[in-house]
């Protein structure tokens, strides 16, 4: 096969300034090797299959690409955020990737060196005040990306400022003007039915959490405290038509060490708590529910049925894993990003608004996380969930599992050794006839060939493997989250 033709690709100039030196760091090599070039390709070459004409929208992924030599010890979530976007329409696909030019990124480009320490560093490493709940970190905006009002909004996992980029061109459009002083957490939620964006933030000062709603015009119309007993580390939220669901898990910073500005998460002998607040509710309307102790990184869908609010997510069976052995001093970090260490499993919580009781059940015994579903079902009963599997010992996605939550059936697709996926949101087929009529969209990092691809998998038959493979112009780095937006939700 002839090599892909990239004669039409355009490199963004000038290139970013880089000082990071080669090392044997487990998350700066292989599929986590940082990428620095920024490229636009108007038409991606097809490697296998054909681009379906019934997929119309944008896939965006956020990845970690540190450019400067770290001041202390590098953690894979410290990297500078970079968006990779593929825009599908009419059987064609374009690609572009851009660094997220955060205030921290720009300051370090000007200084030509790192100015902030990272997650694994203690006090005294950062040279400037930091951002978010932690307070000493650079807001790299490298965790998640959602699309609201035709803008890609990038977020940082311990709260940050939310940077806006035009979803189609990836032109920078600055910090989202509605973001409050305490920032927003990594996972704001877009309700496609109402056009609203729902979010929360958390901090080390009372009331420790806020919840907010941004309207379809981009205005912050609701922002209320959700009082907690102290600083917490919530990561994700869920919503139904009428309720937003926040959480207070017993894994949070050690209070005594926090007084010395040392941030170490500990599991405390407390239950999990979930806060149900009406979409535009006030603090006095919050309904708290207790549940089995755990920590949850990510939730799937939530909905209402009679007196119950039902929510799916990934219950961690070992939220405080032991360090991995033989990891060159990185064992603690590596365990905390290794799903086979913290053991998340598909789980369902049922909150009864009439009795105040919680009922919960495990839905699958496999290690699964980073799930997606048809976003058209958000807040409503749904049937199909798509989870990812990971390579034991590593934060690398090596396959997908589809669940039929009505029948309990499941199907899986495991990638060949050396091929790693990204989070794979569901893209509904144009004029879809059923909930699972669409594609899973993912990037692949191929360590065997040193290349990357964008793949489409028919969600009705994931075991058949990709129906289309597109060649990306460079090997991308791995990262955390990705998003799909249908073109009908990109008004201009
Ligand atoms: Fe996340």
TrEMBL record:
<keyword id="KW-0408">Iron</keyword>
<keyword id="KW-0223">Dioxygenase</keyword>
<dbReference type="GO" id="GO:0010436">
    <property type="term" value="F:carotenoid dioxygenase activity"/>
</dbReference>
<feature type="binding site">
    <location>
        <position position="235"/>
    </location>
    <ligand>
        <name>Fe cation</name>
    </ligand>
</feature>
<feature type="binding site">
    <location>
        <position position="481"/>
    </location>
    <ligand>
        <name>Fe cation</name>
    </ligand>
</feature>
<dbReference type="GO" id="GO:0016121">
    <property type="term" value="P:carotene catabolic process"/>
</dbReference>
<dbReference type="Pfam" id="PF03055">
    <property type="entry name" value="RPE65"/>
</dbReference>
<feature type="binding site">
    <location>
        <position position="298"/>
    </location>
    <ligand>
        <name>Fe cation</name>
    </ligand>
</feature>
<comment type="similarity">
    <text>Belongs to the carotenoid oxygenase family.</text>
</comment>
<feature type="binding site">
    <location>
        <position position="187"/>
    </location>
    <ligand>
        <name>Fe cation</name>
    </ligand>
</feature>
<keyword id="KW-0479">Metal-binding</keyword>
<dbReference type="InterPro" id="IPR004294">
    <property type="entry name" value="Carotenoid_Oase"/>
</dbReference>
<keyword id="KW-0560">Oxidoreductase</keyword>
<dbReference type="GO" id="GO:0046872">
    <property type="term" value="F:metal ion binding"/>
</dbReference>
<protein>
    <recommendedName>
        <fullName>Dioxygenase</fullName>
        <ecNumber>1.13.11.-</ecNumber>
    </recommendedName>
</protein>
């Amino acid at each position: 096969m002839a090599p892909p033709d990239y004669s039409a690709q355009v490199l963004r100039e000038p290139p970013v300034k880089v000082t990071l030196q080669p090392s044997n760091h487990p998350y700066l090599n292989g599929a986590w090797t940082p990428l620095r070039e920024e490229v636009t390709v108007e038409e991606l070459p097809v490697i296998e299959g054909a681009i379906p004409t019934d997929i119309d929208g944008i896939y965006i992924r956020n990845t970690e690409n540190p450019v400067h030599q770290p001041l202390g010890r590098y953690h894979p979530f410290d990297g500078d955020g970079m968006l990779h976007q593929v825009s599908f329409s009419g059987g064609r696909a374009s690609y572009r990737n851009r660094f997220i030019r955060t205030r921290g990124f720009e300051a370090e480009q000007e200084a030509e060196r790192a100015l902030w320490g990272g997650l694994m560093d203690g006090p005294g490493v950062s040279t400037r005040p930091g951002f978010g709940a932690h307070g000493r970190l650079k807001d790299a905006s490298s965790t998640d990306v959602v699309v609201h009002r035709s803008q890609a909004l990038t977020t940082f996992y311990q709260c940050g400022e939310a940077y806006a980029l035009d979803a189609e061109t990836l032109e920078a459009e600055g910090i989202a003007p509605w973001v409050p002083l305490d920032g927003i957490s990594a996972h704001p939620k877009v309700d496609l039915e109402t056009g609203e964006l729902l979010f929360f933030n958390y901090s080390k000062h009372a009331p420790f959490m806020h919840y907010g709603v941004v309207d379809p015009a981009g205005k912050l119309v609701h922002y209320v405290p959700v009082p907690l007993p102290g600083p917490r580390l919530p990561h994700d939220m869920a919503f139904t038509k009428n309720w937003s669901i926040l959480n207070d898990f017993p894994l949070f910073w050690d209070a005594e060490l926090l007084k010395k500005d040392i941030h170490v998460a500990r599991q405390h002998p407390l239950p999990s708590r979930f806060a149900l607040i009406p979409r535009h509710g006030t603090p006095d309307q919050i309904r708290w529910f207790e549940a089995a102790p755990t920590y949850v990184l990510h939730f799937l869908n939530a909905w209402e049925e009679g007196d119950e609010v039902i929510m799916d997510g990934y219950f961690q069976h070992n939220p405080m894993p032991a360090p991995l052995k033989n990891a060159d001093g990185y064992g603690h970090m590596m365990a905390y990003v290794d799903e086979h260490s913290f053991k998340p499993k598909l789980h369902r919580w049922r909150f009864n608004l009439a009795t105040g009781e919680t009922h919960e059940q495990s839905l699958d015994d496999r290690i699964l996380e980073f799930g997606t579903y048809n976003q058209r079902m958000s807040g409503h009963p749904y049937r199909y969930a798509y989870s990812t599997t990971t390579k034991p010992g590593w934060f690398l996605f090596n396959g997908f599992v589809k669940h039929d939550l009505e029948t309990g059936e499941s199907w899986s697709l495991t990638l060949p050794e050396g091929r790693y996926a990204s989070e794979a949101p569901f893209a509904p087929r144009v004029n879809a006839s059923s909930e699972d009529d669409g594609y899973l969209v993912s990037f692949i990092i191929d360590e065997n060939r040193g290349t990357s691809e964008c793949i489409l998998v028919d969600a009705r038959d994931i075991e058949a493997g990709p129906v289309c493979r597109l060649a990306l112009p460079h090997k991308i780095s791995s990262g955390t989250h990705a998003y799909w937006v249908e073109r009908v939700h990109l008004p201009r």
